[in-house]
Specification:
The protein is mainly beta. 7% of the residues lie in helices and 36% in strands. It is built from two helices and eight strands; from the N terminus they run E-E-H-E-E-E-E-E-E-H. The longest helix is centred in the first third of the chain and has 7 residues.
Length: 174
C-alpha cells in the first residue's frame, strides 16, 4: 500500500542537526497518521506515494518545524517560588507554575528551567529544537489504512511532532 491521506505509517528515523550531531534515533517503528495532526506538513509531503521499505531524507527548516527561537518566551523568576531540588532541564506546565510567577507568562506552554542563579531561575518556553534546522533520515516500516477512530481523532495516538502551538506560528515537540 502506498502512503496517501488518512493512512497510518510506521516510521523509524535518525534526526540530526545541520552539523551532523545526532539529536534523536527511533529504532522501533512508531505509527503516525498522515493527513492528521501527527506529522509536520513537510514530512507528510515527502512521504506521499512511498511504500514500506522506502527511505527518505529531508531537511526541515525552523519555520517548517519547531519554529524560530523566541526570546519573548524567556522569563526570569524568583528561585524561592520553585520547589527545593529544582534543577536545570526540569520542565513545568505553564498552567501549573507556582503562585507568584509573572502574570506575563503564557499558561499554554511547557517551560524548561534553562539556568539557575542563587536568587532567580530562567524559564524557557521555547521548544528545545526551536531555531534549529533538522535533518531526518526516515525509513517507512509499514503502511495501513487509518481506522475510523483514528480519522475522527486526527491522530494515530503518537503526535511526536505536533502539540498545540505555544505562541503564534510556533509548534513544538512534546
Amino acid at each position: 500500500m502506498e502512503i496517501s491521506e488518512q493512512c497510518v505509517v510506521g516510521l523509524t528515523w535518525t534526526m540530526k542537526d545541520t552539523l551532523g550531531d545526532v539529536l534523536d534515533v527511533l529504532d522501533e517503528p512508531v505509527e503516525f497518521m498522515v493527513g492528521g495532526d501527527d506529522l509536520f506538513d513537510v514530512i507528510e509531503a515527502v512521504l506521499q506515494g512511498h511504500e514500506p521499505g522506502a527511505r527518505v531524507q529531508l531537511q526541515i527548516e525552523p519555520e517548517q518545524g519547531f519554529g524560530d527561537f523566541n526570546d519573548q518566551l524567556l522569563f526570569l523568576e524568583p528561585r524561592s517560588l520553585f520547589p527545593e531540588g529544582t534543577e536545570e532541564g526540569m520542565t513545568f506546565d505553564g498552567s501549573a507554575l507556582p503562585k507568584g510567577v509573572s502574570d506575563d507568562i503564557p499558561k499554554d506552554a511547557i517551560y524548561t528551567v534553562a539556568e539557575i542563579y542563587p536568587d532567580h531561575l530562567v524559564l524557557d518556553g521555547n521548544h528545545p529544537l526551536a531555531g534549529i534546522a533538522i535533518r531526518l533520515d526516515i525509513t517507512v516500516r509499514s503502511v495501513r489504512e487509518a481506522t475510523e477512530e483514528e480519522v475522527g481523532r486526527g491522530t494515530a495516538g503518537t503526535a511526536f511532532f505536533k502539540v498545540p502551538p505555544m505562541a503564534p506560528g510556533g509548534q513544538t515537540l512534546h
